[in-house]
Amino acid sequence: MSAYIRSVSTYCRRSIAAKPLLTNSLRYSDGAVLETTLRLPLILHTIQNADADPHDRQGFAHFMLKEIYEQPEVVRTCLAAYLKPDWTTGEQAEIPSSPFNFSLPAAMLADATQIQIVACGTSYHAGLVAQHWLEQLAGIPTRVRSASEFVSAPPPLTTNTLTIAVTQSGETADTLAAVKARRSRSEGFQSWLLGITNQPESSLSAAVDATLPTLAGTEVGVAATKTFMAQLVVFRCLALEFAYRRRVLSAQQVQQAIAALQALPDQIEAVLQQEYETIQTVAQTFAAVHDCVVLGRGINRAIALEGALKLKETTYIHAEGYAGGEFMHGPIAMLDANVPVIAIVPSGSVYESMLANAQKVKTNGAPLIGITNVTEPPDCAMFDYQCTLPPIDEQLSPFLTVVPLQLLAYTIAVQRGLDVDRPRNITKTLTS
User: Fold this and answer.
1) What does the pLDDT look like over 17-66, one tens digit per residue?
2) Are residues 275 and 257 part of one domain?
3) Interior CA angle at 163 toward 159 and 167, to 5°?
4) Which of 11, 184, 340, 403 has the greatest number of CB atoms lying within 10 Å of its CB?
5) Are both 207 and 308 inside the same structural domain?
6) What is the four-CA torsion angle of 108, 125, 358, 394, rounded to 10 degrees?
7) DSSP 190-246
8) Does residue 24 lie in a domain region?
9) What letters, b where the CB count within 10 A reaches 16 and e where it falls short, cover 175-212?
């Protein structure tokens, strides 16, 4: 009997019927029993195959939870589409062969001297992560603008500007309006418009010069989860493409970066399998709070904003995301024993600074929840609760640090008895 299991997702080889409790015993539909360390959510579910109806919860209690657990396979699908399987390093030619399957205008990749990203909500936060990669990895000055503000206050346009519009549905009105405004001002300039969307046959695709689909599949839950993950994959590949073509990174460095990307699905699965019990405990403890703060630095500032947005969307808790250092300049005054703080503390360049911020939070009496891949005391001892991540490079950490925040938002919303898949006052255009 094959014991091949990737995670609690819709992409396993065999149907599994699980008990509605955390358990180490899994029973296959043919009656065979497998003992495993896999930890399951507190739901009764049946894992189906990849061809199942995306509008079927497939045994999951909610679409949002199903889509969170689909993220490892979404990353695999996206990488399979954008990576050339037969690419080898070799010697860089005068025009190096790309390791990525991007059908983009050559001038867009070769001549763009600055990038501006326009997006809303979760897509805006993906843009903030991308800004870090495009500037720090590829050396291209990048600015992220809220699409809803772009029309009334457009930035100066110069030649060789690449504008990237990001929207899950391809139908976000504010983003389409920003694209239209950008197009109307481009006459006389060499510039380009690129769309990143989950729907290649959308209004956005018709309005831009080229489109990169995110291939996440239908996302029914209003709170974006797997589409955010797919946007990060596309942006990371695009940043590596720019870095390689401009010889900022060598072929060997790009090969190493690709290998790190290919390891992500297993790492995301590890977080899903290992941290669900911790998330349940945290959710039960803080389900009744009115306020919450999420802190991050560097590339994870964007994840702090995204985590706070998920909490607001699904739980209706007043949650705020801040850069760890900026929080000390005023907002820290709101802290007391009733305001939990979630600190994103990955190893790397901001680790010591985030520890200092977390310690300051602790001295002000706020409950402290850590999301970190560092487990050695005494650093981890300051956290009241800790979600432990697998070892990962700081530049890729957003792929993992966002997952506990998604699960926490979902679980608190369930604890509060809310409609997780259809939060109040929000609408969403479904795509397939």
Assistant:
1) 332 223 333 333 344 433 333 333 433 333 344 556 777 888 899 999 99
2) no
3) 170
4) 403
5) no
6) -40
7) -EEEEEEES-SSSHHHHHSSEEEE-------SSS-SHHHHHHHHHHHHHHHHHHHHT
8) no
9) bbebbebbeeebeeeebbbbbbbbbeebbbbebbeebb
Cα 236 → chain centroid: 11
Instruction: State how far the Cα of 32 lies from the Cα of 12, in Å rounded to an integer.
Output: 16
Give CA angle at 374 (370, 376), nearest 5°.
Answer: 110
Residue 13: CB atoms within 10 Å: 11
Closest CA to 172 of 142, 192, 196: 196
Sheet strand arrangement including 291-296: 318-323, 291-296, 341-345, 368-372, 385-388
Q: Facing residues of 248 across strands?
A: none
**Residue numbers of the domain that contains 361:** 266-415
Closest by CA position to 340, among listed 317, 323, 324, 313: 317
- The CA-CA-CA angle for residues 227, 228, 230, to 5°, reads 65
Q: Mind listing the pLDDT tens digit for each residue in 239-253?
A: 999 999 999 999 999
pTM for the predicted model, two decimal places: 0.87
The torsion defined by the Cα of 347, 348, 352 and 353, in degrees rounded to 10, comes to: -110
Total domains, the chain: 2
- Both 108 and 143 in one domain: the answer is yes
Tell me how many degrees the CA angle 68-198-59 measures, rounded to the nearest 5.
30
* Residue 56, pLDDT score: 81
Residue 426, domain member (yes or no): no
Confidence of residue 343 (pLDDT cuts 50, 70, 90): very high
pLDDT in tens, 371-402: 999 877 666 788 999 999 999 999 999 999 99
* DSSP label of 275: S
Highest mean pLDDT pick, 51-65, 147-161, 162-176, 366-380: 162-176
Q: What are phi and psi of 97, to 5 degrees?
A: -70, 130
Q: Where are the alpha helices (DSSP H) in 137-172?
A: 147-150
